[in-house]
Protein backbone atom coordinates (compact mmCIF):
# COMPACT_ATOMS: atom_id res chain seq x y z
CA UNK A 1 0.00 0.00 0.00
CA UNK A 2 1.20 3.45 -0.78
CA UNK A 3 0.51 6.86 0.60
CA UNK A 4 2.00 9.20 -1.96
CA UNK A 5 1.00 10.13 -5.46
CA UNK A 6 4.30 9.43 -7.16
CA UNK A 7 4.16 7.44 -10.38
CA UNK A 8 6.87 4.90 -10.95
CA UNK A 9 7.25 2.44 -13.72
CA UNK A 10 8.06 -1.26 -13.54
CA UNK A 11 10.51 -2.68 -16.02
CA UNK A 12 10.51 -6.14 -17.50
CA UNK A 13 13.01 -8.10 -15.46
CA UNK A 14 12.13 -11.51 -16.87
CA UNK A 15 14.50 -11.48 -19.86
CA UNK A 16 12.55 -14.07 -21.82
CA UNK A 17 14.83 -14.03 -24.86
CA UNK A 18 18.17 -14.57 -23.15
CA UNK A 19 17.14 -17.00 -20.46
CA UNK A 20 19.14 -14.87 -18.09
CA UNK A 21 16.94 -14.26 -15.09
CA UNK A 22 19.26 -12.05 -13.13
CA UNK A 23 17.81 -8.56 -13.52
CA UNK A 24 21.12 -7.02 -12.52
CA UNK A 25 22.87 -8.53 -15.49
CA UNK A 26 20.54 -7.14 -18.08
CA UNK A 27 21.75 -4.31 -20.22
CA UNK A 28 19.24 -4.16 -23.09
CA UNK A 29 16.39 -1.66 -22.71
CA UNK A 30 13.35 -3.46 -21.34
CA UNK A 31 9.68 -2.66 -21.88
CA UNK A 32 7.49 -1.32 -19.08
CA UNK A 33 5.29 -3.90 -17.43
CA UNK A 34 3.35 -1.84 -14.91
CA UNK A 35 2.79 1.60 -13.54
CA UNK A 36 1.74 2.94 -10.17
CA UNK A 37 -1.30 5.14 -10.17
CA UNK A 38 -4.39 5.82 -8.05
CA UNK A 39 -6.67 2.83 -7.52
CA UNK A 40 -10.24 3.74 -6.72
CA UNK A 41 -10.75 3.81 -2.96
CA UNK A 42 -7.36 2.24 -2.23
CA UNK A 43 -4.76 4.98 -2.52
CA UNK A 44 -2.27 3.86 -5.12
CA UNK A 45 -2.11 0.54 -6.91
CA UNK A 46 -0.04 -1.25 -9.52
CA UNK A 47 -1.53 -1.59 -13.00
CA UNK A 48 -0.39 -3.58 -16.04
CA UNK A 49 0.55 -1.31 -18.95
CA UNK A 50 0.48 -4.18 -21.45
CA UNK A 51 -0.91 -7.70 -21.65
CA UNK A 52 1.09 -9.98 -19.40
CA UNK A 53 1.52 -13.72 -19.78
CA UNK A 54 1.16 -16.01 -16.80
CA UNK A 55 4.49 -16.42 -15.01
CA UNK A 56 5.91 -13.01 -15.92
CA UNK A 57 8.41 -11.71 -13.40
CA UNK A 58 7.22 -8.24 -12.40
CA UNK A 59 10.00 -7.42 -10.04
CA UNK A 60 12.93 -8.77 -8.07
CA UNK A 61 13.64 -6.48 -5.18
CA UNK A 62 16.13 -6.49 -2.32
CA UNK A 63 14.12 -5.51 0.80
CA UNK A 64 14.90 -2.13 2.35
CA UNK A 65 14.89 -3.83 5.73
CA UNK A 66 15.30 -7.47 6.76
CA UNK A 67 14.66 -8.66 10.31
CA UNK A 68 14.51 -12.11 11.87
CA UNK A 69 10.93 -13.30 12.27
CA UNK A 70 11.74 -14.69 15.71
CA UNK A 71 13.19 -11.39 16.91
CA UNK A 72 10.15 -9.30 16.03
CA UNK A 73 7.42 -11.30 17.77
CA UNK A 74 7.22 -9.03 20.82
CA UNK A 75 6.42 -5.32 20.45
CA UNK A 76 9.77 -4.38 21.99
CA UNK A 77 11.60 -6.83 19.72
CA UNK A 78 9.87 -5.33 16.70
CA UNK A 79 10.69 -1.77 17.79
CA UNK A 80 14.35 -2.53 18.42
CA UNK A 81 14.81 -4.44 15.16
CA UNK A 82 12.99 -2.04 12.86
CA UNK A 83 14.57 1.11 14.34
CA UNK A 84 18.05 -0.44 14.27
CA UNK A 85 17.66 -1.38 10.61
CA UNK A 86 16.06 1.94 9.71
CA UNK A 87 19.07 3.83 11.08
CA UNK A 88 21.35 1.76 8.82
CA UNK A 89 19.56 2.97 5.66
CA UNK A 90 21.07 5.74 3.55
CA UNK A 91 19.14 8.97 2.98
CA UNK A 92 17.58 7.79 -0.27
CA UNK A 93 16.41 4.51 1.27
CA UNK A 94 15.01 6.33 4.31
CA UNK A 95 13.16 8.63 1.90
CA UNK A 96 11.60 5.59 0.17
CA UNK A 97 10.67 4.10 3.55
CA UNK A 98 8.89 7.29 4.68
CA UNK A 99 6.74 7.22 1.54
CA UNK A 100 5.24 3.83 2.44
CA UNK A 101 1.79 3.84 3.99
CA UNK A 102 1.12 3.34 7.70
CA UNK A 103 -2.39 2.13 8.47
CA UNK A 104 -4.19 4.34 11.02
CA UNK A 105 -4.69 1.38 13.36
CA UNK A 106 -0.99 0.43 13.26
CA UNK A 107 -0.05 4.06 13.86
CA UNK A 108 -2.26 4.45 16.92
CA UNK A 109 -0.98 1.13 18.33
CA UNK A 110 2.63 2.22 17.79
CA UNK A 111 2.01 5.64 19.38
CA UNK A 112 0.46 4.03 22.41
CA UNK A 113 3.34 1.59 22.78
CA UNK A 114 6.00 4.27 22.38
CA UNK A 115 4.23 6.59 24.83
CA UNK A 116 4.56 3.96 27.54
CA UNK A 117 8.32 3.54 27.16
CA UNK A 118 10.61 5.37 29.54
CA UNK A 119 12.84 7.49 27.40
CA UNK A 120 16.17 9.17 27.92
CA UNK A 121 15.12 11.83 25.47
CA UNK A 122 12.14 13.37 27.16
CA UNK A 123 10.45 14.47 30.34
CA UNK A 124 9.79 11.00 31.70
CA UNK A 125 13.22 11.16 33.27
CA UNK A 126 13.84 13.10 36.43
CA UNK A 127 16.11 16.11 36.31
CA UNK A 128 18.64 14.17 38.34
CA UNK A 129 18.67 11.25 35.95
CA UNK A 130 19.01 13.62 33.03
CA UNK A 131 21.96 15.36 34.65
CA UNK A 132 23.73 12.12 35.48
CA UNK A 133 26.61 11.21 33.23
CA UNK A 134 25.76 7.54 33.79
CA UNK A 135 22.42 8.00 32.09
CA UNK A 136 22.27 5.47 29.26
CA UNK A 137 22.15 6.89 25.75
CA UNK A 138 19.50 5.26 23.59
CA UNK A 139 20.74 4.09 20.20
CA UNK A 140 17.49 5.51 18.88
CA UNK A 141 18.09 8.99 20.29
CA UNK A 142 18.28 10.50 16.77
CA UNK A 143 14.62 9.62 16.29
CA UNK A 144 11.79 11.47 17.99
CA UNK A 145 8.91 9.54 19.53
CA UNK A 146 6.68 10.50 16.61
CA UNK A 147 9.27 9.28 14.14
CA UNK A 148 9.70 6.02 16.02
CA UNK A 149 5.94 5.47 16.05
CA UNK A 150 5.69 6.13 12.33
CA UNK A 151 8.60 3.79 11.51
CA UNK A 152 7.06 1.00 13.58
CA UNK A 153 3.65 1.53 11.97
CA UNK A 154 5.08 1.56 8.44
CA UNK A 155 7.04 -1.58 9.28
CA UNK A 156 3.97 -3.36 10.65
CA UNK A 157 1.80 -2.31 7.71
CA UNK A 158 4.26 -3.38 5.01
CA UNK A 159 6.14 -6.36 6.42
CA UNK A 160 6.37 -9.49 4.25
CA UNK A 161 7.14 -12.95 5.59
CA UNK A 162 10.15 -13.92 3.48
CA UNK A 163 11.04 -17.54 4.24
CA UNK A 164 9.65 -18.36 7.66
CA UNK A 165 12.78 -17.16 9.45
CA UNK A 166 13.12 -13.71 7.88
CA UNK A 167 10.67 -10.84 7.47
CA UNK A 168 11.28 -7.83 5.26
CA UNK A 169 9.95 -4.42 4.27
CA UNK A 170 10.10 -3.77 0.54
CA UNK A 171 9.60 -0.56 -1.40
CA UNK A 172 8.00 -1.46 -4.72
CA UNK A 173 6.46 -4.75 -3.58
CA UNK A 174 4.63 -2.82 -0.83
CA UNK A 175 2.68 -0.97 -3.51
CA UNK A 176 0.54 -3.91 -4.61
CA UNK A 177 -2.99 -3.85 -3.26
CA UNK A 178 -4.71 -6.90 -1.80
CA UNK A 179 -7.14 -9.34 -3.38
CA UNK A 180 -8.45 -12.69 -2.09
CA UNK A 181 -8.01 -13.98 -5.66
CA UNK A 182 -4.68 -12.31 -6.40
CA UNK A 183 -3.38 -12.38 -9.96
CA UNK A 184 0.26 -12.25 -8.79
CA UNK A 185 2.27 -13.95 -6.06
CA UNK A 186 5.48 -13.17 -4.21
CA UNK A 187 8.33 -15.43 -3.11
CA UNK A 188 11.63 -14.92 -1.35
CA UNK A 189 14.44 -16.09 -3.63
CA UNK A 190 17.35 -16.98 -1.32
CA UNK A 191 19.80 -17.27 -4.23
CA UNK A 192 19.09 -13.70 -5.40
CA UNK A 193 18.41 -12.49 -1.84
CA UNK A 194 15.42 -10.74 -3.37
CA UNK A 195 11.68 -10.84 -3.13
CA UNK A 196 10.24 -11.69 -6.54
CA UNK A 197 6.71 -11.07 -7.80
CA UNK A 198 5.26 -13.08 -10.71
CA UNK A 199 1.89 -13.02 -12.45
CA UNK A 200 -0.05 -16.22 -11.76
CA UNK A 201 -2.49 -15.83 -14.64
CA UNK A 202 -2.81 -13.77 -17.80
CA UNK A 203 -3.36 -10.10 -17.05
CA UNK A 204 -4.73 -7.57 -19.54
CA UNK A 205 -3.29 -4.10 -20.04
CA UNK A 206 -5.01 -1.72 -17.62
CA UNK A 207 -5.87 -4.38 -15.01
CA UNK A 208 -4.76 -3.88 -11.45
CA UNK A 209 -2.13 -6.38 -10.28
CA UNK A 210 -2.72 -7.71 -6.76
CA UNK A 211 -1.12 -9.86 -4.09
CA UNK A 212 -2.71 -11.34 -1.00
CA UNK A 213 -1.90 -9.87 2.42
CA UNK A 214 -3.50 -12.75 4.33
CA UNK A 215 -3.70 -16.57 4.06
CA UNK A 216 -6.06 -17.08 1.12
CA UNK A 217 -7.40 -20.44 2.27
CA UNK A 218 -8.97 -18.86 5.35
CA UNK A 219 -12.71 -18.11 5.34
CA UNK A 220 -14.04 -14.74 4.21
CA UNK A 221 -14.71 -13.78 7.85
CA UNK A 222 -11.18 -14.76 8.95
CA UNK A 223 -9.64 -12.89 6.02
CA UNK A 224 -11.62 -9.79 6.93
CA UNK A 225 -10.42 -10.02 10.53
CA UNK A 226 -6.83 -10.41 9.35
CA UNK A 227 -7.18 -7.39 7.04
CA UNK A 228 -8.67 -5.16 9.73
CA UNK A 229 -5.30 -3.77 10.95
CA UNK A 230 -4.59 -2.61 7.39
CA UNK A 231 -7.60 -0.34 7.69
CA UNK A 232 -9.73 -1.49 4.76
CA UNK A 233 -12.46 -3.94 3.86
CA UNK A 234 -11.68 -6.18 0.92
CA UNK A 235 -13.85 -5.46 -2.10
CA UNK A 236 -12.60 -8.30 -4.30
CA UNK A 237 -15.04 -10.34 -6.42
CA UNK A 238 -15.31 -13.07 -3.80
CA UNK A 239 -15.84 -10.80 -0.80
CA UNK A 240 -18.48 -8.69 -2.51
CA UNK A 241 -20.42 -11.60 -4.06
CA UNK A 242 -23.80 -12.79 -2.73
CA UNK A 243 -23.52 -14.55 0.63
CA UNK A 244 -24.54 -17.82 -1.04
CA UNK A 245 -21.55 -17.55 -3.40
CA UNK A 246 -18.92 -16.63 -0.84
CA UNK A 247 -20.13 -19.39 1.45
CA UNK A 248 -19.46 -21.86 -1.38
CA UNK A 249 -16.07 -20.24 -1.88
CA UNK A 250 -15.35 -20.71 1.85
CA UNK A 251 -16.25 -24.39 1.52
CA UNK A 252 -13.95 -24.88 -1.45
CA UNK A 253 -11.05 -23.10 0.28
CA UNK A 254 -11.60 -25.18 3.40
CA UNK A 255 -11.54 -28.35 1.28
CA UNK A 256 -8.25 -27.30 -0.37
CA UNK A 257 -6.81 -26.62 3.08
CA UNK A 258 -7.95 -30.02 4.39
CA UNK A 259 -6.43 -31.85 1.42
CA UNK A 260 -3.16 -29.97 1.88
CA UNK A 261 -3.11 -30.91 5.58
CA UNK A 262 -3.63 -34.58 4.74
CA UNK A 263 -0.82 -34.47 2.15
CA UNK A 264 1.48 -32.74 4.62
CA UNK A 265 0.79 -35.47 7.15
CA UNK A 266 1.42 -38.19 4.55
CA UNK A 267 4.63 -36.55 3.35
CA UNK A 268 6.03 -36.42 6.90
CA UNK A 269 4.99 -40.03 7.49
CA UNK A 270 6.44 -41.28 4.19
CA UNK A 271 9.78 -39.75 5.13
CA UNK A 272 10.01 -42.09 8.11
CA UNK A 273 8.72 -45.18 6.33
CA UNK A 274 10.79 -46.69 3.53
CA UNK A 275 7.88 -48.83 2.38
CA UNK A 276 5.79 -45.80 1.45
CA UNK A 277 6.89 -44.43 -1.89
CA UNK A 278 3.72 -44.05 -3.95
CA UNK A 279 0.70 -41.95 -3.08
CA UNK A 280 -2.46 -44.05 -2.74
CA UNK A 281 -5.16 -43.99 -5.41
CA UNK A 282 -7.29 -42.02 -2.99
CA UNK A 283 -4.57 -39.39 -2.74
CA UNK A 284 -4.27 -39.17 -6.49
CA UNK A 285 -7.98 -38.52 -6.67
CA UNK A 286 -7.68 -35.86 -3.94
CA UNK A 287 -4.83 -34.22 -5.85
CA UNK A 288 -7.02 -33.88 -8.93
CA UNK A 289 -9.82 -32.50 -6.80
CA UNK A 290 -7.51 -29.96 -5.11
CA UNK A 291 -6.12 -28.76 -8.46
CA UNK A 292 -9.66 -28.31 -9.83
CA UNK A 293 -10.71 -26.39 -6.72
CA UNK A 294 -7.61 -24.18 -6.87
CA UNK A 295 -8.36 -23.30 -10.48
CA UNK A 296 -12.03 -22.70 -9.69
CA UNK A 297 -11.10 -20.37 -6.84
CA UNK A 298 -8.41 -18.72 -8.97
CA UNK A 299 -5.59 -19.41 -6.49
CA UNK A 300 -3.16 -20.71 -9.09
CA UNK A 301 0.05 -19.29 -7.57
CA UNK A 302 1.93 -20.60 -4.56
CA UNK A 303 -1.05 -22.72 -3.44
CA UNK A 304 -0.83 -24.82 -6.60
CA UNK A 305 2.92 -25.30 -6.21
CA UNK A 306 2.54 -26.36 -2.57
CA UNK A 307 -0.15 -28.90 -3.46
CA UNK A 308 2.05 -30.52 -6.10
CA UNK A 309 5.03 -30.45 -3.74
CA UNK A 310 3.19 -32.09 -0.85
CA UNK A 311 1.52 -34.84 -2.84
CA UNK A 312 4.55 -37.03 -3.62
CA UNK A 313 7.44 -38.49 -1.65
CA UNK A 314 10.70 -36.69 -2.30
CA UNK A 315 12.94 -38.70 -4.59
CA UNK A 316 9.93 -40.72 -5.80
CA UNK A 317 8.00 -38.29 -7.96
CA UNK A 318 6.85 -39.61 -11.34
CA UNK A 319 7.59 -37.68 -14.49
CA UNK A 320 4.16 -36.14 -14.98
CA UNK A 321 3.89 -35.09 -11.36
CA UNK A 322 7.33 -33.45 -11.39
CA UNK A 323 6.47 -31.67 -14.63
CA UNK A 324 3.37 -30.19 -13.02
CA UNK A 325 5.40 -29.11 -10.00
CA UNK A 326 8.09 -27.59 -12.22
CA UNK A 327 5.55 -25.64 -14.29
CA UNK A 328 3.95 -24.26 -11.12
CA UNK A 329 7.31 -23.30 -9.60
CA UNK A 330 8.52 -21.63 -12.80
CA UNK A 331 5.26 -19.71 -12.92
CA UNK A 332 5.11 -18.28 -9.41
CA UNK A 333 8.77 -18.13 -8.36
CA UNK A 334 10.82 -18.31 -11.57
CA UNK A 335 13.40 -20.60 -13.06
CA UNK A 336 16.23 -19.21 -10.93
CA UNK A 337 14.68 -20.16 -7.59
CA UNK A 338 16.69 -22.95 -5.89
CA UNK A 339 13.53 -25.07 -5.38
CA UNK A 340 12.72 -24.82 -9.09
CA UNK A 341 16.26 -25.85 -9.95
CA UNK A 342 15.96 -28.81 -7.59
CA UNK A 343 12.77 -30.02 -9.29
CA UNK A 344 14.40 -29.55 -12.69
CA UNK A 345 17.33 -31.71 -11.63
CA UNK A 346 15.04 -34.39 -10.23
CA UNK A 347 13.07 -34.41 -13.47
CA UNK A 348 16.19 -34.64 -15.64
CA UNK A 349 17.30 -37.66 -13.63
CA UNK A 350 14.01 -39.39 -14.45
CA UNK A 351 14.20 -38.45 -18.10
CA UNK A 352 17.80 -39.72 -18.29
CA UNK A 353 17.86 -42.48 -15.68
CA UNK A 354 21.31 -43.75 -16.71
CA UNK A 355 22.87 -40.34 -16.93
CA UNK A 356 25.03 -40.82 -13.84
CA UNK A 357 26.31 -44.17 -15.12
CA UNK A 358 27.24 -43.16 -18.67
CA UNK A 359 28.79 -39.83 -17.65
ZN1 LIG B 1 -11.55 -10.34 -0.69
Automatic annotation (TrEMBL):
Signal peptide: none annotated. CDD domains: SET_SMYD. Pfam families: SET. PROSITE patterns: SET. It comes from the Eukaryota. Residues 1-29 are annotated as: Disordered. Residues 32-214 form the SET domain. Transmembrane segments: none annotated. PANTHER family: SET DOMAIN-CONTAINING PROTEIN 5 (PTHR47332). This is SET domain-containing protein.
Amino acid sequence: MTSDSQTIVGMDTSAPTTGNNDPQEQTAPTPKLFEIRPSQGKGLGIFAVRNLERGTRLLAEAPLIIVTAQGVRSPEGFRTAILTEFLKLNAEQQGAFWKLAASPKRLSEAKEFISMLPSVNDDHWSTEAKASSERPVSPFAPLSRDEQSKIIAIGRTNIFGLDGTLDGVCNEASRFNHSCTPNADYTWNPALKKLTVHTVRKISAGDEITLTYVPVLESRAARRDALEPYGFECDCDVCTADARLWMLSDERRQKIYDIMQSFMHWKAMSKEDEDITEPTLDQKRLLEEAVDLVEYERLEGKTLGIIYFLSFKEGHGDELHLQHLLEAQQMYQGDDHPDTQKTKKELSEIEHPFHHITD
